[in-house]
């Protein structure tokens, strides 16, 4: 019998742990099995007993934890559940505030051991926030939407999953990675979903499962932050426009070193001027619609068309139709404005002129903003001019493809490249070939720019030679 | 055009019936919006010196196994403006007590941080909003910080 609940804390008086809540949570894990009980081992800890009568993954795991001697210490006090309150802090000062953690035994060398002053495995969780309504995790099947709450029994079961591997010396790799989650967290979230399914089944509702690949969570079940101009212009951080931009940013591009470095520079520039655009929209109500119709929607449409081409494999007439389906309500006037044509401001209202001055001043000068947020808009001009020249949809699609290839090859080159090994650089080039530089011509043009940017970096040149089409001969 | 970082000033520390309230003024003299961590992520208290350090940052946080890695709450302060941040803390904290001879059972120690006579605040800030690092070799959230604003206040015992 090796599972215990801390019922009091020596030296601190009573009232700093909530043992009844922990036992109730164990009852839920046991699915209400009447075979669960406890005895007072000492004034400070209760020993859990379990003569299981029910099946199911959570009761079976609990049975194993309660009725196995793991030999973590000579006293056979292997796992202690410590149901703390919100004023508990760990030895590194970090607050427990809504967290559930597992501390490996002191001296074990496993994660959390240096924060544990005992020879037991401690499962510490904050019991004060009932149903953890303020904590939102990634819901399975949604592409990472963080709106899934976590209850106390689910938190405890998640931690007991970790504890079971700590005491059997079977812990998987633990890292700080959030998305994708580390192997250990992936395993615990997968098992956590057994608990979610058991609770849902007992309630007669469909289970709401957590995405095992995403470990991080946020407070407040709002969407991930993104794109303040689009958010204000569209009126919601959950709008289709913001969702599309967020998906493009996080779903693929920021997962690579090249994409992450690029977005770091883009954010630096974008958040330097976008609050000013937001302030203008706040001061002049009509500007919101202008920004949404003339800039945000055409940009989303262009970026989605680029994605259709690079990741979706669309070509020819299909690409042309897709661009039209995404929508094309940009006008030549806006494009002329963004192209720096001063005459194009003649018919604008005062606020519109102020807005365009802000955009031109920043967008025109910054290569990152220009490449990511302005140049894609000109895809609409390319399509319009091709249509005006009476090209077929197939021919317009080919023209669009050439324009996208040309744009992709001009991806700003970041200074992280020389820090990569040959193998890492090769990985980045392959990533770019998969998601952006999808033709040999685009790869060759980008490869030439990269080689010219770092003429003395051997790893880069070797990687370019390794990868087909990037334009360098092997050494 | 200025490029200064976040500036913090600890305005007041007072004990309420159910909380310790700490009010911090944050200022931004730069030409762009600054983003900062707006919640106390860690509390360090030394009962011997009655020195309380509140960290609005994940710097120094050790790697542990936990149910979810909950990101901090963030706020912004506009260019050339100030904002106030009201931090509500428990009046006492509880933590695991060190044990000279290790035993299997935890011992707790409880401290009244409302008795602090020296209060320090550290606030992590950045020029851009926080977005989770989704790379395979992800860096921890604190890598987002461009700097740390410091403020302190000596509290006179009543």
Q: How would you describe what is shown here?
A:
The complex is a heterodimer of chains A (475) and B (158). Chain A has helices at residues 19-29, 57-66, 152-167, 183-203, 228-234, 240-251, 257-283, 286-310, 316-326, 332-338, 350-363, 367-374, 378-388, 393-408, 422-435, 440-453, 458-466, and strands at residues 3-6, 36-40, 45-50, 79-84, 100-103, 121-126, 135-138, 146-148, 216-219. Chain A is built from 17 helices and nine strands. The mean pLDDT of chain A is 86. In chain A, strand 7 (135-138) and strand 8 (146-148) form a beta hairpin. In chain A, the strands form two sheets. A six-stranded mixed sheet of chain A has the order 2-3-1-4-6-5. Chain A folds into three domains: 1-222, no CATH class; 228-408, no CATH class; 417-466, no CATH class. Chain B is 0% helix and 49% strand. By secondary structure, chain B is mainly beta. Chain B has a single domain, classed as Sandwich (Immunoglobulin-like). In chain B, strands 3, 4, 5, 8, 12 and 13 form a six-stranded mixed sheet that branches. Chain B has a three-stranded antiparallel sheet with strand order 1-2-9, with no helix packed on it. Chain B has a two-stranded antiparallel ribbon with strand order 10-11. Chain B has strands spanning 6-15, 20-28, 34-37, 42-46, 51-56, 65-66, 69-70, 74-77, 81-89, 92-96, 108-112, 118-126, 147-154. The chains are: A alpha+beta (475), B mainly beta (158). Strand 9 of chain A pairs parallel with strand 7 of chain B.
């Amino acid at each position: 019998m090796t599972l215990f609940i801390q019922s009091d804390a020596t030296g601190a008086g009573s009232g700093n742990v909530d043992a009844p809540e922990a036992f109730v949570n164990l009852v839920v894990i046991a699915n209400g099995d009447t075979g669960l009980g406890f005895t007072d081992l000492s004034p400070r800890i209760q020993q859990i007993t379990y003569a299981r009568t029910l099946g199911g993954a959570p009761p079976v795991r609990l049975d194993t934890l309660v009725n196995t001697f793991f030999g973590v210490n000579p006293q056979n006090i292997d796992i202690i559940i410590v149901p703390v309150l919100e004023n508990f802090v760990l030895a590194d000062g970090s607050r427990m505030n809504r967290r559930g953690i597992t501390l490996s035994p002191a001296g074990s060398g496993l994660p959390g051991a240096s924060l544990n002053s005992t020879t037991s495995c401690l499962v510490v969780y904050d019991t004060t926030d009932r149903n953890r309504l303020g904590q939102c995790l990634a819901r399975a099947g949604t592409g990472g939407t963080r709106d899934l709450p976590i209850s106390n029994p689910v938190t405890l079961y998640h931690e007991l999953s970790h504890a079971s591997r700590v005491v059997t010396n079977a812990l998987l790799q633990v890292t700080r990675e959030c998305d994708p989650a580390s192997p250990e967290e992936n395993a615990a979230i997968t098992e956590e979903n057994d608990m979610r399914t058991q609770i849902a089944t007992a309630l007669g509702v469909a289970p709401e499962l957590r995405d095992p690949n995403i470990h991080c969570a946020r407070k407040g079940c709002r969407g991930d932050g993104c794109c303040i101009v689009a958010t204000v212009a569209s009126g919601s951080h959950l709008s289709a426009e913001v969702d599309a931009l967020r998906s493009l940013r996080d779903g693929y591009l920021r997962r690579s070193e090249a994409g992450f470095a690029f977005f770091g520079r883009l954010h630096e520039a974008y958040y330097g001027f976008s609050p000013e655009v937001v302030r203008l929209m706040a001061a002049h109500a009509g500007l919101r619609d202008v920004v949404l119709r003339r800039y945000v929607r055409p940009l989303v449409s262009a970026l989605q068309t680029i994605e259709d081409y690079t990741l979706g494999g669309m070509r020819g007439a299909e690409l042309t139709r897709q661009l039209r389906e995404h929508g094309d309500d940009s006008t030549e006037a806006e494009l002329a404005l963004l192209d720096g044509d001063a005459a194009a401001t003649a018919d604008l209202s005062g606020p519109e002129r102020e807005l365009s001055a802000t955009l031109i001043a920043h967008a025109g000068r910054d290569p990152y903003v220009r490449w990511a947020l302005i140049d894609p808009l000109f895809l609409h001009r390319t399509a319009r001019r091709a249509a005006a020249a009476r090209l077929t949809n197939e021919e317009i699609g080919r023209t669009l493809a050439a324009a996208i290839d040309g744009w992709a090859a001009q991806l700003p080159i970041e200074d992280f490249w020389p820090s990569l090994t040959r193998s890492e650089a090769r990985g980045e080039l392959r990533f770019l070939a998969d998601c952006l530089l999808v033709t040999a011509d685009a790869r060759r043009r980008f490869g030439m720019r990269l080689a010219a940017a770092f003429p003395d970096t051997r790893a880069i040149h070797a990687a370019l030679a390794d990868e087909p089409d990037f334009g360098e001969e092997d050494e | 055009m200025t490029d200064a970082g976040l500036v913090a000033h600890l305005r007041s520390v007072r004990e309420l019936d159910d909380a310790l309230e700490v009010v911090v003024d944050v200022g931004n003299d730069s030409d762009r919006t600054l983003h900062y961590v707006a919640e106390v992520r860690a509390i360090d208290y030394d009962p011997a010196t009655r020195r309380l350090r509140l960290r609005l940052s994940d710097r120094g946080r050790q790697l542990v196994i936990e149910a979810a890695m909950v990101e901090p709450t963030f706020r912004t302060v506009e260019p050339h403006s100030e904002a106030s941040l009201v931090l509500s803390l428990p009046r006492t904290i509880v933590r695991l007590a060190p044990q000279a001879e290790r035993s299997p059972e935890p011992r707790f120690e409880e401290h009244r941080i409302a008795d602090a006579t020296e209060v320090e605040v550290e606030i992590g800030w950045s020029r851009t909003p926080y977005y989770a690092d989704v790379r395979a070799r992800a860096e921890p959230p604190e890598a987002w910080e461009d700097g740390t604003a410091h403020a302190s206040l000596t509290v006179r015992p009543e």
